Amino acid sequence: MNWFTQGFSLGILFSWFSSASIVGESIVSTASASDMLVHGAVFSLGFGYINNFLNMLVNHIESWESEDD
Known about the structure:
A two-stranded antiparallel sheet has the order 1-2. Helix 1 (about 5-20) runs antiparallel to helix 2 (about 35-69). By secondary structure, it is mainly α. It is built from two helices and two strands. It is elongated. A hairpin with a 2-residue loop joins strand 1 and strand 2. The protein has one domain (about 5-69). The chain has helices spanning about 5-20, 35-69, and strands at about 20-25, 25-30.
């Protein structure tokens, strides 16, 4: 799983649904393409940094465990 790609997709969905409304029997969004790209980029960076932090944390904990052996 690529966290950057997942974050970008989630950002686009967030932008689309945050400005969506139900008209008749369909869902309509007024989100512009630039809004979706900005949200996608921000979520992508956020998810990427979270992934990098978690990887560093796991590697650090694993190094502690290997020192104990």
